[in-house]
Amino acid sequence: MKLKRHSKIVELIGKYEIETQEELASRLNEAGFRVTQATVSRDIRELKLTKVTGANGRQRYMVTPGKEDYGDKYIRILREGFLSMDMAQNILVIRTVSGMAMAVAAALDGLHFHEIVGSIAGDDTIICAVRSVDDTIVLMDRLGRLIREEG
Fold first, then answer.
1. DSSP letters along the chain, please?
2. Do residues 13 and 31 lie in contact, with contact meaning Cβ atoms separated by under 8 Å?
3. Alpha-carbon span 123 to 146, nearest angstrom
4. For residues 96 and 124, is the Cβ–Cβ distance under 8 A?
5. The whole model's pTM is what?
6. What is the pLDDT of residues 24-61, one digit of tens each?
């Protein structure tokens, strides 16, 4: 449950300019996670979130880029949510555990695969537009190795 909650937090702070722990707790509760402010505070610490100045000039939570374990968190989310993948030309279709597609898509975005132009996530499916058919094959190989690695 903690991993799903952490995945949802990463997704939420990427999607909304969340300014307070209370706002984050509220959004998590709306998403079906029953959390207290203390739980959110602990999650913020564990995810090493920081506050930055948002587009509106106000402070908001963000995952600090450049931290070494940042990529590890994305890889863990990817491994936990991934079920399968298939390609249709330059489109990669990734199937995930139910409810994890948006978190896995956010993890893919965070891992900055240059082959991916953009992605759309539903409940258990992600559609990735990839630069070319060759890039799709390369990407599937890279993802397969990442998912299979012992960690």
1. -HHHHHHHHHHHHHHS---SHHHHHHHHHHTT----HHHHHHHHHHHTEEEEE-TTSSEEEEEPTT-HHHHHHHHHHHHHHEEEEEEETTEEEEEESTT-HHHHHHHHHHHT-TTEEEEEE-SSEEEEEES-HHHHHHHHHHHHHHHHS--
2. no
3. 22
4. yes
5. 0.56
6. 999 999 999 999 989 999 999 888 888 887 667 888 88
